[in-house]
Specification:
Layout (H helix, E strand, L loop, with lengths): L1 H26 L1 H8 L1 H12 L9 H19 L8
Length: 85
Amino acid sequence: MGGERTLIHSELRLGNMVATILRTGFDFGPLLFGLLFIPPVTAQILGGVGWAAPFGLTPLAAGFVVGGLWGLYAQWRGSWLSWQL
C-alpha cells in the first residue's frame, strides 16, 4: 500500500514538472520560435535566392540575428505583427 502511494506521488510530481516546463516554454514561445524556426528558413531563402548574408555572416548566423531580434520584439510586444511602431 505504501509503495503504491509513493508511485502515485512521484507520477504527480513528474506531471507537475512537465506542466511547468511546457508552461515556461509557451511563455517564451515567440522568442523560441524566433530562434528555432526562423534561422533555418532565412538561411534557405538566402541560399535559394542566391543572396549573400550581410556583414560577412553565414546565412544561418544572419537568420539567428533576424530571428532573435524579431523573437525578442514579439516577446516584448506580445505579437509578431505590429501596425504601430
